[in-house]
Amino acid sequence: MIKWEHSVFALPFALAAAMLAANGWPAPRTIFWIVVAMVAARSAAMAFNRLADHSMDAANPRTRTRALPAGLLGRRFVAAFVVFSSALLIFAAAQLNRLSLSLSPLALAVVLGYSYTKRFTRWSHLALGLALGIAPAAAWIAVRGSMDVRILLLTAAVAFWVAGFDVLYSCQDYDFDCAAGLYSFPRAFGIPAALVAARLFHAVMLILLALTMAAFHLGSVAFAGLLLVAILIAWEHSLVTATDLSRLNAAFFTMNGIISMVLFLFVAADVLHRR
Hints:
By secondary structure, this protein is mostly helical. It has helices at 4-8, 11-22, 28-52, 54-59, 75-96, 98-113, 124-144, 151-170, 174-180, 185-189, 191-215, 220-238, 248-274.
């Protein structure tokens, strides 16, 4: 039900933010609890999404083989898993600092609440973006115990990045969303327009990443990573067209995991090089 790649998407961005906050490697204890909190939050969000969408997943040919509709897991077990993961997130936040603990219920509300947005707004993709986008801000707070407005640029970048690939991914469900009365950008505007919107979202993401690097006075190594990310995103978009979505799974899982890792490695190298 929960795959490692579900956590890999946002975790490198959180670690990059932690390194920016610490101006180098944070203490090993801090990194450990950030990773625990990230995995717990993502696991709670994914499991809750499976509960909230159980009936829709059972009706959708693409998702009816998931664990709940396929009968591999029961609702009671998944609900208990959500409670456990949520409690683990709060416990991990308590190990970091007071502000992390105070904001952990809000973080849970954001990551769990996303699951219902597709029922009333075509902009649910941005809600998912926010759910993953708070990771860098949370990691900054975990290290510093306070907020810095500059890290919100990275939060916004992740939000638009996630929203862009979620718009792409939702194109697969265009027919089902229309039949089930669910909201999505592709259903509202059509698949060709959705592909354009995904490109625009990712263009905004690249601009926000550049602004983030400038705000933290990162150097050529980080900007080289940004250039590589831009090339990977362009390649990702080349995999899909309005008439051929057959390679969308590869674009969604493989490329986005690579993109987040590439950016982290180059930002980390830049931060360490400056020390």
